[in-house]
Write a structure and sequence with these properties.
2 strands, Myb_DNA-bind_4, Myb/SANT-like DNA-binding domain-containing protein, 5 helices, mainly alpha
Length: 223
């Protein structure tokens, strides 16, 4: 909304110290804005960053438009763009803005930069970071540390589960091996028992046959 855009411009100017140019500094800074304004779940830090870049680019284009660009084609000018004054106050180094002077030429009206609009912006003193922003940054760092700790715990659990799974597979392998060895012993014992039983049966049958033969001889001898 326009109100959020106005707040963004003022907030960005007031918190220049957050934007150090280091890697991810801008994203973290705009994350602080999103959290401070209670916009979580509605917009992202990347969206706010893009919004700010668009505002800054538009301001630069209107602050010093290229010579020969007509102001009668419906395009916004410094005088008509509603965010020009706020952006000039935020990043132009002045509390108010005088729109670029329009001068007539032999052709269509063209917009050129006045001498006041191109003067270099004075260097602003670095503002002390507000206490509540320090709290937000600290909370963000704590959340980041918490995420890293949770990631480490997940990794540790994963390795522990892998070790337990490997131990379980090893135990199952040992159980299978013991079962196979036991079954092999049982087969060997069963085979040996069957061999003994066959031998005993053959011996018994041979003995019975011999006894019948002797009995027959005795009967014949008596006759």
């Amino acid at each position: 909304t326009d109100e959020h855009t106005r707040l963004l411009i003022r907030w960005r100017a007031a918190n220049e110290a957050l934007f150090t140019g280091r890697r991810n500094a801008a994203v973290k800074g705009f994350e602080a804005f999103v959290e401070e304004q209670g916009l979580q779940g509605r917009v992202t830090a990347a969206f706010v960053k893009k919004k700010w870049e668009n505002l800054k680019q538009k301001y630069k284009e209107l602050k010093c438009p290229p010579t020969g660009v007509s102001t009668e084609d419906g395009e916004p000018t410094a005088a008509s763009w509603k965010w020009y004054s706020a952006m000039d106050e935020a990043i132009g180094g002045r509390p108010s803005i005088t729109p670029p002077a329009l001068i007539a030429s032999s052709g269509p009206d063209v917009a050129v930069c006045s001498s006041s609009s191109v003067s270099p912006a004075p260097v602003r003193a670095t503002r002390k970071r507000p206490k509540h922003l320090e709290d937000i940054i600290k909370e963000m760092e704590e959340r980041e540390a918490e995420r890293e700790r949770e990631a480490a715990e997940r990794e540790e659990r994963r390795w522990k589960e892998m070790e337990e799974k490997e131990d379980r597979r090893e135990r199952e392998r040992q159980v299978r091996q013991e079962r196979q060895e036991r079954e092999a012993r049982e087969r060997e014992e069963r085979w040996q028992r069957e061999v003994r039983e066959r031998e005993e049966r053959r011996e018994r049958e041979t003995r019975e046959r011999d006894e019948r033969f002797l009995s027959l001889l005795e009967i014949l001898a008596k006759k």
